[in-house]
Design goal:
globular, alpha+beta, single chain, 3-stranded antiparallel beta sheet, 20% strand
Length: 121
């Protein structure tokens, strides 16, 4: 039996997201790093995703999420977004999956760059 690990995000569905660092190196070195990660998460995803549970460990993390329903409140919050992908989504040029993939790319790049800079990697 084959399983597709790269499923598309769909509104009102639940997902388990996880990621780990390269070579088992720590992502989180202090309590402030954990807080900072969650703050960044909210910056990139609070308008689109409900974070239901999380487990952040020094070199990896697990997140249980639910994609928000595509309703008036979501579209109103998107109007305040300044990202290109949010604008494209509002104009129906991309779907919710493409929007969330772009947000994830931006989020993970931000995390990687910040950790590398902070810890001289």
């Amino acid at each position: 039996m084959s399983f597709n690990y790269w499923q598309n995000f769909e509104e009102n569905n639940y997902y388990h997201l996880y990621n780990r660092s390269i070579n088992g190196e720590n992502i989180f070195h202090s309590v402030d790093d954990y807080r900072w990660f969650l703050k960044k998460w909210n910056k990139y995803f609070k308008n689109y995703i409900d974070l239901l549970a999380y487990c952040l460990m020094p070199n990896h993390f697990h997140l249980l999420i639910k994609i928000k329903k595509l309703d008036h409140a979501l579209f109103s919050s998107l109007n305040l977004e300044e990202s290109v992908s949010a604008n494209k989504f509002l104009h129906r040029e991309i779907n919710i999956n493409e929007l969330l993939e772009d947000q994830a790319r931006r989020f993970f790049s931000s995390i990687t760059l910040s950790v590398n800079k902070k810890y001289n990697k």
